[in-house]
Amino acid sequence: MSDRPAPLRVIVADDQASVREGLVLLLGLLPDIDVVASAADGEEAIRLVAEHAPDAILLDLHMPVLDGIETTRQLTEQYPGVAIVVLTTYADDTSVIAALGAGARSYLTKDADRADIAFALRSATTGLAVLDPVVQANLVAAAARATRAPEVARRLPDELPDGLTRREAEILGMMAQGMANPDIASRLYLSAHTIKSHINRIFAKTGSPDRAAAVRYARDHHLG
Q1: Residue spans of alpha helices (H) in 35-132
Q2: Where in the chain is the domain with CATH 1.10.10.10?
Q3: I need a surface site. Which of 18, 26, 130, 160 has the fewest CB within 10 A?
Q4: In the structure, what pLDDT confidence band is assigned to residue 146 with cuts at 50, 70 and 90?
């Protein structure tokens, strides 16, 4: 019997067929990695993880049907034993922090070579994080900006109206200050999808049909 460990079982998820097929071929050439399936969107990725029970998944962030951030969040909740490695073209701090916050263990850009990707997959299955150097630099810069950024939450009243959570009130206050969704996402290190979900709940709780009405509500209740 061979003492060689079993190959790492991996799923590849990327909406671009050429990229997905290239990654499958590239990783399939490695003797200690077995690509068991590939997915074109987040929902398919979750289904294939349930079907194949891989050790790790190599996941793009910007995919149709279900984006990479929400896919990561659902995989982390439903299959915590599966290591998630993000491989994407986006290295901005908002995307990175959203992905890591959702449960990704490692984050690489598509400039990474086969050896880098394989190392990140193996490391992630042992609980170690691997970050692309550009990603690390952006995180350091984001941390520096955060120390200078004003915190809206500190100015919120102790009691919030209409069942608003402090996060929702914080976002509402930023809306009242004229901040657009991407700016709010960047400030709070959340994905654009998450910010949109919060705003939809804000509209429902405050009875606001649109953003302008929500801003008026914020000002009337001293939240902006």
Answers
A1: 42-52, 68-78, 93-102, 114-125
A2: 149-220
A3: 18
A4: low
- Does the pLDDT value for residue 90 go beyond 70? yes
CATH number of 149-220: 1.10.10.10
Q: Quote the crossing angle between the two packed helices 166-176 and 181-188, to the nearest 10°.
A: 130
126 CA to centre of own chain: 20
Please tell me the predicted confidence (pLDDT) of residue 188: 78
Is 30:114 a contact under the CB 8 Å cutoff? yes
Q: Which residue has the tokens 């079993």?
A: 6
User: Which CATH architecture describes the domain 8-140?
Assistant: 3-Layer(aba) Sandwich (3.40)
In this prediction the pTM is 0.66
Output the average pLDDT for the chain.
88
**CA 145 centroid distance within chain:** 20
3-state secondary structure of 104: coil
C-alpha 82/C-alpha 49 separation (Å) is 8
Q: Where in the chain is the domain with CATH 3.40.50.2300?
A: 8-140
